[in-house]
Structures are given as structure tokens and as C-alpha cells.
Amino acid sequence: MRSKIISRKNLSEQFYKLEIKASGAFNTFKPGQYVILRTSDGAAITLPIVKSDAGRETLTVIAPSVPEKMVGLLNPCLSHLELELEGPFGQPFQIEKFGTVLCVANRESRIPLYPVLAALKATGNHITCLLTGAASDDQVLENELRNNSDDFISSADNTLRRSSQLLEQTLGSRKYNQVFTIGSVKTIRETCTVCTATSTPVQAMLYLNEQSQIGLHGIFRVSICGNARALCVDGHNFNAYYAGFEELAKRFGNKDAEASYKFNVSGKVNVPV
């Protein structure tokens, strides 16, 4: 549908907040879903939805960076820039009152994590948030994540422990009714491996920030399928089954793939793109 950017705000040197006015029928958006913005010449960017307002028929998105072909999005002199809005895409996260919830994400995945955290808080859950990755001068959304968490843990504050050690320690210190994980292959692999070992339910999203900013659509829901522990991946115009995280890492170019984490499963093959 046709849409207009009605406001822009620089949150930092890297992050930009855009408010989009949708035309036509306003769709209901849920945490975990995303939209694709296209210009008239076909350039596209994939953005998680941070907030939606059905009354005003607006969406709020935050872009960590913008492709060169789409820098017009950030020009405050171009008021009401018209774009094509596609979506919502993606399987929304199941949000309900679980009780105790652990949310795990790498620092680059703060944008898709925030609406999930806010929705879980609004439904009355007790939330522990574990943010992994090196410390950054850019604190965009970090205060919002802290404010929506009952307990906030950052690997930047625990330099003597690796993120995998913090995760094992956190899951070992309390029984969680549900775990949410968003981030790189490494992040979801470590989380799902520990959750499988502790029989903890987990919902996962693979968020490839760099790929999503060059015109590819790098947001995928990932789930472990049945007792075989094969991985199901579902994204925009693409779905596949993988034998394990090692194969998933190879498909998405993750540099941290380690054979020791793979699940050995026979009879599962990739679905062609």
C-alpha cells in the first residue's frame, strides 16, 4: 500500500526513528512482525515494527542504518515522502501471561527486542532481559529495555564471563516458563542449545541486521522441529529445513559457526530458495 513518512528523528549518529502514515486499510501489527519499505526505483529496506497506532493509522520503525539508495528517507526537507509499504510479514511471537520470562538478544537486536519486551510487560510477566555483546557508546533503546525489565543483565557489565556462561548461569538460577531469543545465529544457537538441555520452551528470531540494510530481508523465525531437532526457518519468500545450527550458519554466512554445536539429523534437506 502507498504510505507517507510524516516524521523523522535522529536518535543518534546511527539510529533514525521514522513515523509512517499508512493509506488504505490499516493492518494489525504484532510483536515480531516487520514491514518492507520500497522507493519508486525499487530500493527496499526491511524494518521491524516498534509501535503501531490503529487510531492514527501510523507505524513507528527505527532504522539502524539506511542503504545509499534510500538516503532520501532521512532528509527532513522532504516532507511526506511517499513510499510503498509491504507487510506485515513474519510470524508474530506468541505473547501471553507466561509468568517468568527470559529475553535474550545481542546488542544489535535491540530494535526487534523492544516491542516484544513491552508486550510481555503489558501482559503481566516477570521479565529478565539478557543483552549480550560488547559495550557500545550508542545507548539507543537500552534505557527502554531496562525500564521494561524486572531484572536486566548485560554482558558488558560482566566482562569476566562469556555470553554463553551468563546464559547458563541465568537459566540455572531460576525456572523460566518461556524464553525469547533474537539475534545472530550464534545468539539463537547458544540459547536454543541451553533451552533444549533444560527443557525450557523457546521462541527464536534470526535477525541479520547487516543483510537487511542492503536490500535483503534478513529476518527469520527459527524453531526446533519435533524430536529430531531439525531447524525450521521461515522468512519473507523463503523457508527451509536444516539439519542443525552449523548448516544454518553456513547458509547465512555466520563466522562463529562451530561444529560442536551441530545436531546430527538424517532425512532433512534444504528447501531451494
Explain what the structure shows.
20% of the residues lie in helices and 34% in strands. It is α+β, with helices and mostly antiparallel strands. The chain folds into two domains: 2-89, Translation factors (Elongation Factor Tu (Ef-tu), domain 3, Beta Barrel), CATH 2.40.30; 100-261, Rossmann fold, CATH 3.40.50.80. An eight-stranded mixed β-sheet has the order 9-8-7-10-11-12-13-14, with helices on both faces. The chain has a six-stranded antiparallel beta barrel with strand order 1-2-5-4-3-6. The model is unreliable at 255-273 (pLDDT under 50).
Main attributes of the structure:
disordered C terminus; Elongation Factor Tu (Ef-tu), domain 3; 34% strand; 2 domains; alpha+beta; 20% helix; six-stranded antiparallel β-barrel; 14 strands; 273 residues
| Percent helix | 10-25%
Query: Any idea what the radius of gyration is?
Result: 19 Å
Question: SSE order, as H and E?
Answer: EEEEEEEHEHEHEHEHEEEH
The CATH superfamily of the largest domain is known as Nucleotide-binding domain of ferredoxin-NADP reductase (FNR) module
Q: What is the correct CATH architecture of the largest domain? A: 3-Layer(aba) Sandwich
Choose one word for the global shape. Answer: globular
Give the strand line-up of the largest sheet: 9-8-7-10-11-12-13-14
Task: Quickly count the helices.
Answer: 6
Largest sheet: 8 strands, mixed
Query: What's the average pLDDT?
Result: 80
Q: Report the CATH C-level class of the largest domain.
A: Alpha Beta
Q: Which stretches are poorly predicted, pLDDT < 50 over at least 5 residues?
A: 255-273
Number of domains: 2
The overall strand count is: 14
What is the name of the CATH topology of the largest domain? Rossmann fold
